[in-house]
Amino acid sequence: DVRREGDCLSVTGLSGKTASGGELPRLDCGESGSTLRFLIPVALALQGGGKFTGHGRLMERPQGPYFDLFREKGIACSLEDGVLTVSGKLTPGEYALPGDVSSQFVTGLLYALPLLEGDSEIHLTTGLESRGYVDMTLDALVQFGVSVDYDGDRRFQVPGNQAYQHRDLA
User: Residues 72-87: pLDDT tens digits?
Assistant: First the structure.
């Protein structure tokens, strides 16, 4: 729920509750590829998936690294009539990703994996090209009370059973 209160927005999250009626939540990502790539794993971790839509050419953007991981993990995904549906449960464990494609895939997993019931690891199969963006992600996680151990090269150790701490931000 999002409410405008004067010149502020008040956002109330799901706090682990499922979407109404047990249906997968429908998430309109506008034209934002980063929003889409960040929310896919979060929706899998919290809601068992989601139905993602967008505008312009958003739904044509490549999602291959996720789709490869999802096949490995038994997560279903399909793109029909401009709606990307992912369903299944993100589980703790090892996730191998190329580091020489968009860092958005790494960020999405870094946002979701701490919420799982067990520890996880992200292993980059190639060098990380967008280190600055991943550093920003790691900084944001710390601000919200989430810890991740990054070896500075290709491995992220992500303890599970964490919870994001709310913050007032300007």
Answer: 999 999 999 999 999 9
